Amino acid sequence: MYKIYKFDEIKNELVKLHEIDPNFIDDKNGDYFCIKDEDEIIGYALVKKIENNYLLERMFVKEGLRYKSNGTKILKFVVNHGRGKRINKIICNNKDIENFLKKYGFKECNGHLELDNIQCVNQRVTEGKKVVMSSIIQNIFLAILKITGGIFGSSRALISDGVNSLSDVGSSIAIYLGIYFSNQPADEEHPYGHEKIESIIGNMMGLFLLITAFELVKGSVMLLISGKFEATPSYITILWAAISMVVKFFMYRYKMRVGIETDNSALIADAKDSKSDVYSSGGVIIGILLSIWISPVFDIIVSIIVGILIFKEGVSIILETSNIILDKQDDEFIEKIENYIEKNTPVKNVHDVYMRKSGDKIFLSLHIRVPKDMTVYNAHNLADGIRESLILDFENIKDVMIHVDYLID
């Protein structure tokens, strides 16, 4: 658990702190960023705010616990808190921890160490935009390749696959806009931010796939009924479909990796669409071969199958993104939250834990029970400590609302 203390608030702990750290600094003007284990302080960082910077005066972790990432956790606590306070840099003159700070990213500057630009660029936005732009360019290339190859190679299945790639261009543009707008800061009208736009874009993409699939199947079925399918595809069309398979496979891997790393539901949905495109291009190759070796009707049948696969993926995307919009609860995640609070705080009764997901961010609300004779001040401090700890140890948690109940005798 993590907690920030003023000197007056930490007075009762002074004897213990001097015992674990003989060089403990009594500073009435500083803030003590503490990490606790079962209500015992095991490490701290003494920090002073100077204009828009933090001065890290001392940092200490109890002996025997220094190689369990506790120092890194404390420093991360200071950095994250600094971001919330619009701190520009953290400065440290303590040479005893020079090597540790350098590993974290501190640089030597004018005889001291400093970590600047802690208001870092949102890596999630940068990576997401890069992936989507790459997807747009590649899908334009594949759409032109397959539609042109399908027309000159007399393959309706390849043309259908090309139209699918063209629809991917539209969905990728929608995702790009979603990434941009979803990362606009919260405002008075949208206090929870704009991240849900990603899920809305994911839903729109799913609907777009359904419409595309319907038109492809409809056209192929009409052609099948008419019986006008005498043209036999050429062998060169197999090459275009094979190129599409390879490109789409690597697009799927790339999008899924970044989508999972950044927890972007729209990007994950787009990755799944690229995966279905790999199968559809494989089906196109089989259909073309059967059309050449047996009958041109197989080219039409495969184009229908491609349409059905696109339709299925569209339904899957809509269901998945709708669960986020409808705030479906993640029981496993909620259980982790309950266990974390009960293990790391004096609270042993956590209940009514609910989550609301918006993009990659999670908003939590929960109830805790405290002794009925606990003062409002202490209950408030306890709740603040739980909130700070959850936000720090669970990267995707953006905010926590805690209601305090009293224990019934």
Automatic annotation (TrEMBL):
It is found in: Membrane. Residues 1-132 form the N-acetyltransferase domain. The chain crosses the membrane at residues 206-226, 232-251, 284-311. InterPro entries: Acyl_CoA_acyltransferase (IPR016181), Cation_efflux (IPR002524), Cation_efflux_CTD (IPR027470), Cation_efflux_CTD_sf (IPR036837), Cation_efflux_TM (IPR058533), Cation_efflux_TMD_sf (IPR027469), CDF_Transporter (IPR050291), GNAT_dom (IPR000182). One of its GO terms (cellular component) is membrane. It is a multi-pass membrane protein. One of its GO terms (molecular function) is monoatomic cation transmembrane transporter activity. Belongs to the cation diffusion facilitator (CDF) transporter (TC 2.A.4) family. This is GNAT family N-acetyltransferase. It comes from Fusobacterium hominis.
